[in-house]
Amino acid sequence: MKFFIVCPGGLEGALVGELEAIAQRPEVKAFGATQIDPAPANMTGGVGLSGPLAVAMAINLHSRIASRVLLKMIDGPYKSEDDLFRLAKTIGWEDWFNSHQTLRVDLTAQRSPLKSLNFATLRIKDAIVDRLREQTGERPSIDTANPDVRIQVHLTNNHASVYLDTSGEALFKRGWREEKGEAPLKENLAAGILALTGWQPNQALYDPMCGSGTFLIEAAQIALHIPSGGIRAGLFDQQSHVATAKESSWKRAISLSGFGFTRLKPFYTALEKKNWSSLCDCAKNEIVEFANTPIAISGSDINEKMIAICKANWQRAHLPGLPVARQVDAIAIKSTSDNGVMVFNPPYGERLGIKGGDQDKMDTWGDDNKSYMQKRRTSREPLVKEPIDPQFAAFLDQFSKQLKDYFGGWQIYALTADMGFPGHLRMKEAKRTPLFNGPLECRLFKFDIRKRD
């Protein structure tokens, strides 16, 4: 089987490392060989791999960086919408789902010659519906909000690839976030950033602007070996879920239906049920084994309400006790260890316009109007420096002094869309990494704070 593992732009290399670690897990190796494509030189929005069907279940359960796990059904050349219709209709959809299940089709394109992608999407839907009606005598319905089955199509200038989504809801929706701050950071982007920092569970980690606690929770789950898909997989003892009107549609979908592969016929076989049971049992045993691992993860925020949200999210993520999170102004923070990793996402500017936690849009690979691949800068190109609010400039000046006075020996990482951030902070970055928070181009800036004599 061939798969494409979607991830936020800029995290392809980190995703390859994570996939290699998942493939080396004993219970995953027992499924058969998995071949992972090399990390791409440019942003592709994901990584390809080949392996047995069960590897899709393992990635959905364990990958913290992936957005979706797509199973390639077919690919081929096209020139018109009719070519797409014929290509989609050749697929034996009846072997994967039935006519009583609802569908959603998403299409992305890079340099496609077609005039209307909406019409192309419609033709692909028609092909799938017609095929099932001919094979079963009934036609499935379309549901764009909470479909049973999701199909993804990607077009280049002359080539089409059709995928079946094994994830269902995007994987960054872990299932623990009831409330969020004004500008939530996607969980898989936070996990990818932690991978890029090189942070290890035996190191101190601190977020001085923790908001709803995304960095803290992702780090704690890494340290305690709690799978990112643990809630969807039903690994934790909890009372039977009753959906409420206050819950968002994606929250209900995660609580009630878990992963997309659970609604696909090939995963109902005795073999795949056994494989899934093996994955879950191993994950549960690992959670128990590392339950008492000491962690040095902490955070703070000036907003008392955000600290309360952080603590509530921590508990919903099935983490022990409460997080070490306090209401502290970032200009008053002090280190409690000689070294460690500080990571934060400054809550200002363009970031406040993102609603990534609420969106239900798949990561795109090249739509002329949406793709990060269309207008991205490279890390070597000049950075665009945006005007800064004088009040925030004064805050950064004080914050910079606090870092230099109290965090000698630490590595500081800041994710921001403000390309002039190092200058505003009056610090020279040691490294800059292009990343995308949804459609927003950002940089992950690294600063090394020297110890004072």
Map the helices and strands:
Blueprint: E1 2-6, H1 12-23, H2 26-29, E2 35-36, E3 46-50, H3 54-62, E4 68-77, H4 81-89, E5 103-109, H5 117-136, E6 149-155, E7 159-165, H6 187-197, E8 205-207, H7 214-223, H8 230-233, H9 249-257, H10 270-289, E9 297-301, H11 304-316, E10 324-327, E11 340-344, H12 372-375, H13 390-406, E12 410-416, H14 421-425, E13 431-437, E14 440-448
Parallel strand pairs: 5-6, 8-9, 8-11, 9-10, 11-12
Antiparallel strand pairs: 1-3, 1-4, 2-3, 4-7, 6-7, 12-14, 13-14
Brief digest:
The chain is α/β, with parallel strands linked by helices. 32% of the residues lie in helices and 18% in strands.
Oligomeric description of these chains: single chain
| Run of helices and strands | EHHEEHEHEHEEHEHHHHEHEEHHEHEE
Average pLDDT works out at 88
Largest sheet: 7 strands, mixed
Secondary structure: helix percent? 25-40%
The shape is globular
* CATH topology grouping of the domain at 2-165: VC0802-like
Strand order in the sheet with the most strands? 2-3-1-4-7-6-5
Using only CA atoms, what is the Rg? 23 Å
- Which architecture of the domain at 2-165 per CATH? 2-Layer Sandwich
Instruction: Estimate the strand proportion.
Output: 15-25%
User: Which stretches are low in confidence, meaning pLDDT under 50 for 5 or more residues running?
Assistant: 239-250, 349-383
Number of E strands: 14
Helical segment tally?
14
Instruction: Kindly provide the name of the CATH class of the domain at 2-165.
Output: Alpha Beta
Question: By helix and strand content, what is the structural category?
Answer: alpha/beta
Question: What's the end-to-end separation, in Å?
Answer: 58 Å
